[in-house]
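Model it.
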Amino acid sequence: MSSPEKSSPEDAPRDDIAPDAPAPDGASVPFWRAKPLSAMSTTEWESLCDGCGRCCLVKLEDEDTGQVAYTDVACRLLDAATCRCSDYERRSEIVSDCVRLTPESVAELNWLPPTCAYRLVGEGKDLPFWHPLVSGDAGSVAAAGITVSGKVAGSENEFGLFELVDHIVAWPVRWPRGAKGAAKPSPKGTPGASRRRRPKAGEQKA
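Modeled.
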């Protein structure tokens, strides 16, 4: 994702975003809750991308309605195994219709996946539990079923224009089951996760 231009001093912490995400690196408030997209540094902006690869899928737009549909066909530069662009720095030169996200364009691109951090923060929402900035683990994105890994039919170089219609899919614009939520449930055996077991017949209650 492209970086926003450097901006003026940071805005005050926002009250319109859920307050239950942990603050990274000991900060009092996570930057994505303390700043609007336009005030983020280049590093902060880039770190919002979870690397899911959904926005790198080929999309078809209806000329009459303007409605955008996703396919399970990947951009020629997307490495479907790692969900990373194979030539990130020169992507716009190689792929003429590659869309560079900016704070301004995020609000206009209604086709961004609902799981996209840029969209979520732009809408005043918190990051989900699986986002690397929250989980501290880049692998949590794939574990939550967010990435395109294993779901791509192939690269756009392998399909003709009319073949793409047969590859229209809905999953890129949906949340995987159990992927919503700003706080991951505690695993079994940790505080807050224990459950009382009903005593079996003949057992004595503690």
